[in-house]
Design a protein that fits this description.
By secondary structure, this protein is an alpha/beta fold. The protein has helices spanning 2-25, 42-58, 70-79, 89-96, 152-163, 175-183, 199-207, 217-226, 263-274, 277-283, 305-313; strands spanning 31-35, 61-65, 84-88, 111-127, 142-145, 168-171, 189-193, 210-213, 230-234, 246-258. Helix content is 39%, strand content 21%. α2 (42-58) crosses α9 (263-274). It comes from Marinobacter profundi.
C-alpha cells in the first residue's frame, strides 16, 4: 500500500507540475519578432540565427525583422512593437537617458538586457583605387557612408572622425546599398560599425580590391578618451584584404527583450541561445563571444528577470538592483 501511495503521489506531483508549466506557458506570445538592422549588416544575419534557434527550442514561431539598428530597436522593444531586439551599449545608455533621436525626451526604460552578443568594431573601408590607406589620406569634404540613420555607426562614427579633425559629408543607407555606392564611386569611404565579418565588406572583396583602414595608436587613444569604446583588433583571418590585424575600437552589443514579456519565456529563450554556443557559432561567426562569462559587460541596463535568472544559475552574479522590478 505504501508503494502504491508513493506512486500515486508521484504521479499527482508530475501532473501538478505539468499543469503549472502549461498555465505559465499560456501567457507566452503566439509569435515573436527580433529587431535587427539593415540587410547586409551583421545584425540581420546574427538576429536571424538566434531567432531561428529560439523558435525551434521554444516552439513559438518567430523571426528577424529589418530595422534601422540599435537606436530604433531600443524604441521598438520599449513599446512592444518588437518582442526582442539588439543594441549596442552606447545607444542603450542614451535611450535610457531620454536622448534617443527617434524618441527624443522619452526614457526608453521598458527594454531589458537579455544576453551579451559580441563587440562591434568600428572600421573604415575604401577602394584600393582611391589611394586611401590611412585616416590622414581621407580628404576634407569626403563623402562618407555611415550606415542607417540612427544606427551605432551613424551615431558614433561621425563623432570619432570629428575628434580626429576630419571634415566630411554624411550619407545614410543600408550597408549593402552603401557598399554599392562605394563601388560606383559615389562615396569616398564607408564607415562600418558592425560585427565582423561584415557581409557587405566580404561581398566587396569578391567584386573589387579594397583597403580596410586602421587607426594609428594615437588616433585610437583619442577616440577612446572621447567616447565609450575600448581598444580592439580586427583579426586578419576575417577578411582576405587583411594581412595583419587592423587596429580599431569597439562597443559591446546586447540582445534586449521587452520587459513585460513572461519571465519563463525569456528564460527559455536565453537558455536556447546561451546553452549551445557551438550551434550559435555555426549559425554566425560573431557568436564566438556570446558566452555566459560576458554578462558583466552590462553595468547599467536593467536585466529582464528571466534572463537574470538564467545567468545567475550559470555562473553570473547579477545584483537585484540591476534586475527590472
Amino acid at each position: 500500500m505504501k508503494t502504491i501511495k508513493t506512486f500515486v503521489l508521484s504521479v499527482a506531483l508530475v501532473a501538478a507540475s505539468s499543469s503549472l508549466f502549461a498555465e505559465d506557458k499560456s501567457a507566452w506570445p503566439e509569435s515573436f519578432t527580433v529587431g535587427t538592422g539593415s540587410q547586409g549588416g551583421a545584425y540581420f544575419g546574427y538576429g536571424t540565427a538566434w531567432a531561428n534557434i529560439v523558435s525551434e527550442q521554444t516552439g513559438v514561431t518567430g523571426g528577424a525583422e529589418v530595422t534601422g539598428g540599435p537606436m530604433q530597436n531600443m524604441a521598438l522593444v520599449h513599446t512592444g512593437d518588437n518582442h526582442f531586439g539588439m543594441t549596442t551599449m552606447g545607444p542603450a545608455r542614451e535611450s535610457l537617458e531620454g536622448n534617443n533621436a527617434i524618441a527624443p525626451g522619452i526614457q526608453l526604460d521598458n527594454a531589458c538586457a537579455m544576453f551579451p552578443m559580441y563587440q562591434t568594431p568600428f572600421s573604415i573601408t575604401a577602394l584600393t583605387s582611391s589611394g586611401i590607406t590611412s585616416i590622414s589620406d581621407i580628404p576634407d569634404g569626403a563623402v562618407i557612408g555611415f550606415g542607417p540613420a540612427g544606427s551605432t555607426s551613424d551615431t558614433y562614427f561621425p563623432r570619432m572622425l570629428a575628434a580626429l579633425g576630419l571634415k566630411f559629408e554624411r550619407r545614410n543607407g543600408g550597408w549593402s546599398d552603401l557598399g554599392g555606392q562605394l563601388q560606383d564611386g559615389l562615396l569616398d569611404v564607408v564607415a562600418f560599425a558592425a560585427g565582423v565579418p561584415v557581409p557587405a565588406v566580404s561581398q566587396l572583396e569578391v567584386q573589387t580590391d579594397i583597403n580596410i583602414i586602421e587607426f594609428t595608436e594615437e588616433e585610437q587613444a583619442k577616440i577612446i578618451d572621447a567616447l565609450p569604446v575600448s581598444d580592439y583588433e580586427i583579426p586578419a583571418s576575417v577578411y582576405k584584404s587583411l594581412e595583419t590585424p587592423a587596429r580599431s575600437v569597439a562597443m559591446w552589443n546586447f540582445a534586449i527583450a521587452n520587459c513585460d514579456l513572461p519571465e519563463s519565456f525569456v528564460y527559455e529563450a536565453v537558455k536556447a541561445v546561451m546553452g549551445d554556443n557551438e550551434r550559435m557559432v555555426q549559425a554566425h561567426k560573431g557568436a564566438r563571444t556570446t558566452l555566459a562569462k560576458h554578462w558583466d559587460k552590462n553595468t547599467f541596463l536593467p536585466w529582464h528577470p528571466g534572463a537574470a535568472r538564467w545567468f545567475n544559475e550559470n555562473g553570473g552574479s547579477i545584483s537585484p538592483n540591476l534586475i527590472h522590478n
